[in-house]
Every structure is written in structure tokens, then in C-alpha cells.
Design a protein that fits this description.
The chain contains 10 helices and 10 strands. It is α+β, with helices and mostly antiparallel strands. The structure holds adenosine-5'-diphosphate.
């Protein structure tokens, strides 16, 4: 994240979600059903245009019905053509119709068919337009399957008997011819319905088989991904382990070699050394032993954090005073690194004194370690805008690249920058620091500009005022 002055900022890294979730196919099924419905509508639309054309031909060539009925049929067919044209445009533009769309067009077809039947003079008319009814039954079969086709056939048959037989003012009883036609209506309905049922069940089976195959493929891919991840993790563990061994060896070698050389000098040349040299050698041994002690302390801390045995003893702490004491006790060479300290008085937190000292010491020692001679260090402690206590250690050192910042807090993580290759370290300090700060309910923040310097801060919640008040009463 870039800060207002172009510096890089880092605020707690979020975990990445693990891949390989199984896929949900309900969308595919829904989509395929809608697709089948749409192609059903397209098929009925083609049928409708064909029937319309056939009815037009029937109306004008060899039609023996009255001229009035010819005119009416033309008008009805023209209206139907307008509806069909609208439906065609809608379907061609990729609209996916629902069931209600089929119901509406069926109703329109039924209206056209019955009015033509009525106007042409019923089923006893010389020219028969019943083909519109066949279309209606087949289209219902395509849309609604066998039950839809049979229901349409029953409705059509009833209308055919009633509307077709109602000529003048009386209802003529259906003749054998009419009964034969009704039988045909039902027959067409059953055949169309069964065909459609067969087709849709084949399509369904094919779709389910494809989904099953895709599911198996998914599972295999998931397993492969997990396997790959496992292998990568093992490789990573191996790499960390060997890096750890070489790092420990290196880190131990330096102080041990120094102790050995100085102790050897003391042992074998004691009589030739003056008092100040002897003292300097003893001091050197002490410093190296302290460095070894700190190293062991870091390893122990990490081990305790990992096994959840890192314990805390919280107490109410005057942070202003505490930070000042820690900074004063830090062996800072003012010649090498000018130090500025700005601490707001009266900052109270609940903290473990020993652990928090580890945090401040670590930030101070990094500020010094990763700064060239002359690079100033500043320590600040104040209440931030969100009313949290903020302690910052600023240096004018190497600085870091933005992309490196998220790695800093990982265990054993060191930035392999050629500017800092000769600086020794374990890559554990910031990991331990962050764990301690988190255990205090706080967080770490980093701002850095490559080549200019860094500011490492931690924020902690302010101690509750009731707690502060009660301590004041007790100490008064
Ligand atoms: P160590 O200092 O022992 O390597 P840390 O965990 O304290 O381990 O720091 C991790 C890495 O972060 C260091 O190796 C260094 O590359 C980088 N780093 C930490 N503090 C600073 C700083 N003040 N300036 C520049 N780089 C830093």
C-alpha cells in the first residue's frame, strides 16, 4: 500500500483461500433446460409459419367456402402473422422464453384456430382448416410433453365438437367423420408427447452423464492440485530446514570463533598483556556470550510460540516511562547513530514488561543494524488518531521494497539484498515481535522507502480507564 509520501506501508497479511472447491452444476442443468425450451419454441414457430402458409394457400386455391369467410380467414391469418413475426423477432434476439410464453402463444393459436373453424362454417364446411389444430397439439407436446399434448388434444376436441358443430342456432351431433378426426387429434397428441418425452429423457441422460464425467474430472484435478501442494510444502519444509541449519551454523560460528580467539589470547599470552587489554578481551568474550545467549533466547521463544508455551504476565504499564527506560538501557553509540526520542507522557497499557522489552529492543537493534554509520534513529511514543498507543522506531537506513514487506514477519525470513549480505541475523526477530504484539491485542505497521529508511511501529490498545483509576487509588 502506498502512503501519502510515496512510502510503502504494510498492515497484517491476510490468508489466501485454498483452491479446489467442487463445482456446482445446477446452473448448467438450469441452462440446458432453458435451452431445450427455447429450441422447442423455435420448432413450434417454424411449424406455425408453415401452417400459416398452408392455410393461406387453402384459403385461396380451391376454397369452396363463402367469400365472406375467405375474407375473415385472411384477416385472422394476417393477425396471426403479426403475432408470429413478433415472436420470431423476440426469439431471434436470443430471448429465452419461460413456460408462460408457451401458454400465451398456445392461447393465441387456439383463438385463431377456433375462430377460423367457426367462420368457415364448422366441420361440415367444404374446405377444412383443422390443420391449425394439429399444429396446436404438436406444439403443446413440444412445450409441455405428453400431458400437455393430451390436454391440448382434449381441449381441441371439445372445441371442435362444440364450435365446429354449432352452425346456425343448433348444435349438430358429431358424425363418424368428426369422431375419426377427434381420434386423430388424440393419436397425434400421444405420438408427439411420447416422441418429445423420449427425446428429452435422452437429452437429460446425456447431460447427467456429461456432468458425472465432469465431476470425476474435477475430483481428479482437485486431487492432483492437493498432491502438488503437498509436494511443494514438503519441498518448502526441506528448503527451510537446510536454510535453518546453515543459518544456525553461521550465526553460532561468529561469536564462538570470537570467544575462542579472545580466550586463547588470554590463556596463552596473559603475562604479556596489560590490564586494559585483558579487560577489553574479557569484555569481548562477554559480548559474544551475550550474543549467543540472545540467539538461544530467540530459538527458545520461537519454539515456545510454536508449541503455544509462550506465556505472558500482563500488568498495568506506564508505557512512556517503560519505553524511555528501554531506550536508555540500549547500547547505542551516539557517534554512529544520533538518537532522537519523543515520548508523550502518561501512556498506559496492559502488557508483559519482559516481552514488550523484547519487542522494543528488537526494533531498535534492527534500526541500528540496517543503517549505515551516521544514520539517525528516532523513537516516538504517542496516542494515534484512533486513540491507540503507538510506538515507532524510525531509521535512516537501507529501507525496503514494497513487495518485500509482507515476507518480513515470516519465520526465518531475511531479505537477500546485496546491501545487507554482510549483516548477520536469523530472520526470527520480527516474527517473535509480531507474535508478542498480537498477543497484546495490537498490530505491527511498517513504512519504508527503499534507500531512505524505515519506520517499524506497533500499536496497542490503551489500558481501560477503570484499571488506571484503581491503580492510582492503590498507589496513593
Ligand atoms: P534479522 O534481523 O535477525 O535478520 P528480523 O526478523 O529482525 O531478523 O528481520 C527480518 C529481515 O527484515 C531482516 O533480515 C532485514 O532484511 C529486514 N529488516 C528488519 N528491520 C529492518 C530495518 N530497520 N531496515 C531494513 N531492513 C530491515
Amino acid at each position: 500500500m502506498a502512503g501519502p509520501n510515496g512510502e510503502t506501508r504494510y498492515i497484517e497479511v491476510q490468508p489466501v483461500p485454498s483452491p479446489g472447491q467442487p463445482t456446482d452444476y445446477s446452473d448448467v442443468i438450469r441452462d440446458s433446460r432453458a435451452g431445450v425450451l427455447t429450441s422447442g419454441e423455435r420448432i413450434s414457430l417454424i411449424g406455425r409459419w408453415v401452417v400459416l402458409l398452408a392455410a393461406l394457400i387453402l384459403n385461396h386455391f380451391g376454397n369452396r367456402n363463402s367469400p365472406a369467410s375467405v375474407l375473415f380467414v385472411d384477416a385472422a391469418l394476417a393477425g396471426w402473422a403479426v403475432v408470429n413475426a413478433a415472436v420470431s423477432v423476440v426469439l431471434l434476439r436470443g430471448y429465452r422464453p419461460g413456460r408462460w410464453f408457451g401458454l400465451i402463444t398456445t392461447a393465441i393459436d387456439l383463438l385463431v384456430a377456433t375462430s377460423i373453424l367457426y367462420v368457415t362454417g364448422g366441420y361440415s364446411a367444404p374446405t377444412d382448416f383443422s390443420l391449425v389444430f394439429y399444429l396446436l397439439i404438436i406444439a403443446s407436446g413440444v412445450r409441455f410433453g405428453l400431458p400437455g399434448a393430451v390436454a391440448a388434444a382434449v381441449v381441441v376436441s371439445l372445441l371442435y365438437i362444440v364450435v365446429g358443430g354449432f352452425t346456425g342456432s343448433a348444435l349438430t351431433p358429431p358424425s363418424g367423420f368428426v369422431l375419426g378426426r377427434i381420434f386423430l387429434f388424440l393419436f397425434v397428441a400421444v405420438v408427439a408427447g411420447l416422441l418429445v418425452r423420449d427425446l428429452t429423457s435422452r437429452l437429460d441422460r446425456a447431460l447427467h452423464a456429461a456432468i458425472e464425467r465432469a465431476g470425476q474430472l474435477d475430483e481428479t484435478r482437485r486431487r492432483e492440485a492437493l498432491e502438488k501442494e503437498r509436494a511443494q510444502r514438503l519441498e518448502e519444509i526441506d528448503r527451510v530446514r537446510s536454510e535453518f541449519v546453515s543459518m544456525v551454523t553461521h550465526e553460532l560460528q561468529t561469536p564462538i570463533a570470537s570467544i575462542k580467539t579472545q580466550a586463547d589470547t588470554l590463556l596463552h599470552q596473559q603475562h604479556r598483556l596489560d590490564q586494559p587489554t585483558r579487560e577489553a578481551l574479557i569484555e569481548g568474550i562477554h559480548r559474544s556470550a551475550a550474543a549467543l545467549g540472545a540467539l538461544i533466547e530467540d530459538f527458545t521463544s520461537v519454539n515456545r510460540i510454536d508449541t503455544e508455551h509462550f506465556t505472558y504476565r500482563f500488568e498495568l504499564l506506564d508505557l512512556s516511562q517503560f519505553v524511555r527506560e528501554v531506550v536508555e538501557s540500549f547500547p547505542m553509540d551516539a557517534q554512529k547513530h544520533p538518537l532522537r526520542v519523543r515520548i508523550e507522557p502518561g501512556l498506559q497499557v496492559r502488557a508483559d514488561r519482559k516481552r514488550l522489552q523484547q519487542v522494543v529492543m528488537n526494533l531498535l537493534s534492527n534500526a541500528v543494524k540496517y543503517s549505515p554509520r551516521g544514520g539517525g534513529v528516532a523513537v516516538m511514543a504517542f496516542l494515534d488518531r484512533e486513540n491507540r498507543v503507538k510506538v515507532s522506531v524510525h531509521d535512516e537506513g537501507l529501507g525496503m521494497r514494497e513487495e518485500d514487506i509482507p515476507r518480513l514477519f515470516e519465520k526465518f525470513s531475511r531479505l537477500f539484498d546485496k546491501r545487507s549480505l554482510s549483516i548477520s541475523g536469523t530472520g526470527l526477530g520480527l516474527y517473535i515481535t509480531r507474535e508478542i504484539v498480537r498477543a497484546h491485542g495490537g498490530e505491527m505497521l511498517v513504512e519504508s522507502v527503499w534507500g531512505k529508511g524505515s519506520t517499524f511501529s506497533f500499536v496497542l490498545p490503551v489500558a481501560a480507564s477503570s484499571e488506571v483509576a484503581s491503580t492510582k487509588t492503590t498507589t496513593a
